Amino acid sequence: MRIYIIVYIALLFSCNEQSSLNKRNEDTTYTILKEDINKLNNRNFLETYLSKYIDSINLAKSEKELPLFLNDTQFDYNNKGAWESFHNPISVRSQVVERINNCKVLKIIKESKNENFTKKPFVEEKLIPPYIEFSLYDLVVERMKTLNCK
Prior knowledge:
Layout: H1 2-58, H2 75-78, H3 92-97, H4 103-111, H5 136-147
């Protein structure tokens, strides 16, 4: 009878240990999945957020049709809502320009006499997004090189 009790207790501890191990694995899997879903949601949010800006630029046929937001040298700061966090700012301007696929509109921006296109943003609140040292003009020139625009 003692042997049965000892075996029973050993099995009981073994099951509890296995259950605890499974719980830790489930927690780890859940955490990893949650992080992946958050990254996916942030990417989808950013793509959706940027799409209205990208489309309005890609559809422009002349300088008069260029959207007014291109004049905003502080566009990155005025669109902080697209940032993942204040500790991880992004350049919304560069994100938009990197998605422009229309060489004609890039050329229109590059050849424009609009002085706002050549102005560089200034740092606000000690938050420094990437590409802050580039004007819209600079970003467009780089994008044209990437697309091999003529």
